[in-house]
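Comment thread on ticket #2218

A.B. wrote:
> Attaching the input chain for the structure job we discussed in standup.
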Amino acid sequence: MVRFILMARIVVNATGFSGNFYPFLTLAKALRQRGHAVTVATGSHYYKEQIENEGLEFYPLSEFLLPSKFDADPNLKNKILYSKGNLKLLLKYRVLPNLQNSFEELNAVCSGADLLISGVLPFAASLVHEKRKIKWISFCIHPPLFFSKDEIWPPKLWMAKIPLQFRRVFTLLSHVILRKQVDHWSKDWHQLRKNLGLIGTKNMLLDSIHSPMLQLAAFSKFIWPRQSDWPDHRKHVGFIRSPFVEMDLSTELKAFLAAGESPFVFTMGGAASIFFGNQFFNMCLTIIQKQQIRAVFCCGEMEVTQELRERVDKVPWVILTGKEPFSKLFPYARAVIQHGGVGTIGEAIIAGSPMLIVPGNAENPSNGLRISFLKCGVCSGSKPISPRIFEKLLLKINQKQFRDSAQLLSAKVRTENGVEDSIFLIEEHLRK
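C.D. wrote:
> Ran it. Output below, let me know if you need it in another format.
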């Protein structure tokens, strides 16, 4: 790749938990290596040290997804995780109360910048783009948030059997209803647009999370193919892997992996592990003890309870670890049991590992359905899973057909280079 001639000042606006944040860190690191001055503006203050260790400027924003706020109200937490109205609750209690402040902070850091790159959670990005006339690239790792008429939403397995033309009618109708609902919930959004002197009425969700200039679809086209209603400025780039792909496994985990047959690897992504990880791992451990299955509990950023640690210590064929590089761990896995995040799915597919997906909320059920369609794994559905059903699915995922399908798909996905393709499109956009 030819080196970009002029250095640009780029603001990368990332938020959310690790699965949402790390692709942005990887992209920001690559842009800095190309000679650009990159500021990572995020409310995820947990990542400050990692950002600065990569030679990037850290700009703190107010956070609206802090786990402590959820923990303070368990009823609200459970509603946001499992309720059909979780989108309304997320907007009402997390996004809208902070919208004015979010705009002011992001607008300030974009002063003098050449380009803004944002995900779909920072709703203020579109406001800053319109107000400052700054170049804006949106970056999406969640396929359902493109709201294609061909996407099954809400995701239901039985709907796959319905002819496409009827599914499209259902999906388009659901989009009309969603548009009306979001407009009703987001009166503060419309008032802020009016106060800023922005022209036109735009739906906060369907019209404002994606850039009208360039959109990067950061997931594999072999898993989520291009849809017929995608605009020309929406470009597939493939998975953007975690910046920790070069990180090594812990000494204890290496010893465990070398001591026996391939284990099942259990992991729950950032938000899922924080909200209900201990409960999930305790259920898994009960079944693992019964079946005498070798297993790795990869707990990541989760605060593990003393009860879970003591139970695991009594089971010699199970190991409990913290943050481990999935790129190094998943190739050892007999199967990966996870929540359905795009990043974790990507690492499992690249490793050729079949999956059992126990989805959280948001796009996780839809992602799980996609993996089921491709026969690379099974999905438990969108409701909390019972131990009996979980045990049945755990034994099912060990079948050879799922591993064969996952390895065939892995060979295709490995041909993509999400970082390189993203950099090419970003720099091409800067030249315009």
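A.B. wrote:
> Thanks. Noting for the ticket: The two ends are 18 Å apart (CA to CA).
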